[in-house]
Amino acid sequence: MNVKKVKKVKPLKLMITIVDRGKSKKLMSYYKSQNINFSILCFGKGTASSEVLDYLGLNEEEKDVFISAIYADDVSKIFAQLKEKMEFHKAGKGIVFTIPLDSISGMASFHALIGGGKEE
Fold it and tell me: What is the rounded end-to-end Cα distance, in angstroms, of the chain?
């Protein structure tokens, strides 16, 4: 009987970070320092009414949206540092949330998302 050994990989999450347009350089530098190797920067434009923007403490409609792959174990550390370094706890500084990644097709895709490193 030929049984393949299954390697355990750490769970990933997709992290979405939204900041005002043009304020992403500091965020990108922080992500690089944390070895967040897979980030896509998209440009967003809000369509919310001014009442909703005021309620959320958002100033501008144009946003920079980062989509990043991170290890699930790192979420609390990253969120705490965003609060400290980027002041995400203050209104209008930014929004960050995660979405679980339940499935990734193939180890090559997994390695691409984590920046080419080996699984643990």
Answer: 26
Neighbours of 13 (CB within 10 A): 19
Task: Write phi, then psi, for 2 (nearest 5 degrees).
Answer: -100, 105
Asked if 97 and 75 count as a contact pair (C-beta separation under 8 A), the reply is no
Distance, CA of 47 to CA of 16 (rounded, Å): 18
Sign of CA dihedral 24, 30, 32, 36: negative
Mean local confidence (pLDDT), 53-75: 80
Give the span between the Cα atoms of 38 and 35, in whole angstroms: 9
DSSP state string for 27-48 = HHHHHHHTT---EEEEEEE---
The string of pLDDT tens digits covering residues 24-45 is 888 888 888 888 877 788 888 7
Please name the residue ranges forming H helices in the chain: 24-33, 50-56, 75-85, 107-113
Q: Is 97 helix (H, G, I), strand (E, B) or coil?
A: strand
Q: At what angle do helices 24-33 and 75-85 cross, to 10 degrees?
A: 140
